[in-house]
Write a structure and sequence with these properties.
The chain contains 6 helices and no strands. The chain is an all-alpha fold and about 100 residues long. α1 crosses α6 and α4 (about 55-60) packs antiparallel against α6 (about 80-90). The relative contact order is 0.19.
Length: about 100
């Protein structure tokens, strides 16, 4: 049986994946996201498994009020839900480590 904190984290991760999918649905949105994060389209899946990436997706989303509002409306969430998910995931910025 999962604890409350694990359930909250899983819900936050699911929201972040939903946000990433929303970003990826539009070429312009995806291009801007990739440009700012420094990852390529082929690297998204592997990057999503790195610690902090999903929190970074929500940080990115929260940093653009229009994008946040559009996502929240499209997904049927309040923008405050995104803020709560960011906190559940640690709300730290994700930066790609470049070898």
């Amino acid at each position: 049986m999962k604890g409350r904190s694990e359930q909250v984290r899983e819900a936050a991760e699911a929201l972040a994946v939903q946000a990433l999918s929303y970003i990826a649905q539009d070429g312009e949105r995806l291009g801007r996201f990739l440009s700012l994060t420094g990852i390529g389209p082929a690297e998204i899946r592997s990057a999503a498994r790195e610690p902090g990436f999903l929190a970074g997706v929500l940080d990115y989303l929260a940093g653009d009020e229009r994008l946040l509002t559009d996502f929240a409306k499209d997904a049927g969430h309040d923008p405050e839900t995104v803020a709560a998910a960011r906190l559940a995931l640690g709300a730290s910025s994700w930066e790609r480590e470049i070898p």
